[in-house]
Amino acid sequence: MGMDAVHPRVLGYFGRALSLELTAVQQYMTQACLAELWGDPASAQRFRHETVEELRHAETLVQRMLSLGVAPAASQLRPAGHGRDLVELLRQDLALEADLVALYAEASRFCGLAADASNAALFQQLWGEEQQHAAQLEAWLQSLVGPQALLPDRAMF
Ligand SMILES: [Fe+2]
Ligand SMILES: [Fe+2]
């Protein structure tokens, strides 16, 4: 498998995906530290678990990029937002997960059109896992604020 076999746009998706996954690592790691500072070790542990999941995604992307002959070069990490409470953090996380879901949806669709089955499968797998993250975070947020309070903010996505 060589770089010449891959559509340049697919390489672009890999670069954007790595930037977003590393942004997620930074964000969840920061939130784990914040929760710890707030005296909420249970939430800190959940955020640590998310950090590891996103790190594994970044690693999966790096492995595939190396096998395609491209150097991983993430750029433009978004700053981890500050939140005043858990609800604010979870809203930021849902926005980030929504961006990941949208990116992987587009990337897997494009790879399918470009007859790149192997990268389509990888992006589809990541797409499914980010959808699971989003659903779990949404359930967590819902357990804090109730279903009614979710609706106005979700409209902003
Ligand atoms: Fe991820
Ligand atoms: Fe995620």
Rough shape? elongated
Strand content: under 5%
Give the names of the bound compounds.
fe (ii) ion
Structure class: mainly alpha
Layout of helices and strands, plus pairs?
Blueprint: H1 8-37, H2 41-67, H3 86-113, H4 117-156
Helix pairs in contact: 1-2, 1-3, 3-4
The structure holds fe (ii) ion (FE2) (2 copies).
One fe (ii) ion (FE2) binds at residues 21, 24, 54, 57, 100, 130.
Write up this protein.
This protein has 157 residues and is mostly helical. It has a single domain, classed as Up-down Bundle (Ferritin). Helices cover 80% and strands 0% of the residues. Helix 1 (8-37) runs antiparallel to helix 2 (41-67), helix 1 runs antiparallel to helix 3 (86-113) and helix 3 (86-113) runs antiparallel to helix 4 (117-156). The protein is elongated. The mean pLDDT is 91. Residues 21, 24, 54, 57, 100, 130 line the site of one fe (ii) ion.
